[in-house]
Design brief:
alpha/beta, Rossmann fold, 7-stranded parallel beta sheet, 7 helices
Length: 210
C-alpha cells in the first residue's frame, strides 16, 4: 500500500507543484520509491519540469506521469512507496475522491487574505464531505518573515487545522545554492513525509488485526 500525498488548491500559483516536486526529490534522496502524478491537463507543470530535469541531467531522477483522472491516479502507485498527486488549481469532484484515498492532503497558502480565505473554504468543504481534518495540512509559502509565519500558524491552528513545520520564504526549493533555504524546504518536506507515513501506518494496523 503506497502512502498517498495530494497537493490541492482552489487557485493556481500558490505553490502546489513547487512543493510536490520538492517532496519527491527529498524522498527519493532518503531512499523511497516515489512517483509524481501530474493531474493538470491544461498546464502539465510537473511533466515539463521532469523533461527539463532530464535534459539538464539533474540527479536524483524523479518519475513523473501525466494522468487525467483522480481515480486512475489513486490506483497508480501500487509499485511505489510514495505517490504524490498534483491536482489542478480548481475545486471539482476529483477533490472528494482524492480526500477519500489520500493519507495526507496538503494545501499551500501565503499569509495574504487573498490566499487564506479560499484555502480555508477548500478544507471546510472537504470536512463537509467527511474528509478527516487530521489528514489535512497547510504549508506556508511566500512568507516575508517568521513573525508573519507565526501569526498565520496561530490563525490556522485556531480554525482547527494542522500547519507544517517551517515556512517557505520566497518560494525556496530544496536544491538552491543557499543552504538556509534548502534547510527550510527539507524540514517542511520531512515533516510532511512523517505525517503521511504515520497516517498510512494507522490505516494498516486495523487491516492486519482482521
Amino acid at each position: 500500500m503506497p502512502t498517498i500525498v495530494a497537493f490541492v488548491s482552489q487557485k493556481g500559483g500558490v505553490g502546489k507543484s513547487t512543493l510536490a516536486r520538492s517532496l519527491a526529490v527529498v524522498d527519493v534522496e532518503v531512499g523511497l520509491r516515489v512517483r509524481l502524478a501530474d493531474l493538470d491537463p491544461q498546464q502539465r507543470t510537473l511533466v515539463r519540469w521532469a523533461c527539463a530535469r532530464e535534459q539538464s541531467r539533474v540527479a536524483p531522477a524523479v518519475e513523473v506521469t501525466a494522468i487525467d483522472s483522480a481515480r486512475v491516479a489513486l490506483s497508480n502507485g501500487r509499485d511505489v512507496d510514495l505517490l504524490v498527486l498534483d491536482l489542478p488549481g480548481q475545486l471539482d469532484n476529483s477533490f472528494v475522491e482524492v480526500a477519500a484515498g489520500a493519507q495526507l492532503i496538503v494545501q499551500p497558502t501565503s499569509p495574504s487574505i487573498d490566499d487564506l480565505h479560499p484555502a480555508l473554504l477548500v478544507f471546510d468543504a472537504l470536512k463537509r464531505v467527511q474528509a478527516p481534518p487530521e489528514r489535512m495540512a497547510f504549508a506556508l509559502c511566500r512568507v516575508l518573515g517568521e513573525r508573519e509565519a507565526e501569526t498565520t500558524r496561530d490563525y490556522l491552528r485556531g480554525r482547527g487545522y494542522t500547519v507544517l513545520r517551517s515556512a517557505i520564504h520566497g518560494r525556496a526549493l530544496s536544491e538552491t545554492r543557499q543552504q538556509s533555504l534548502n534547510t527550510a524546504a527539507r524540514e517542511m518536506m520531512l515533516d510532511l513525509l512523517d505525517r503521511a507515513l504515520s497516517a498510512t501506518a494507522a490505516l494498516e494496523v486495523p487491516a492486519r488485526a482482521t
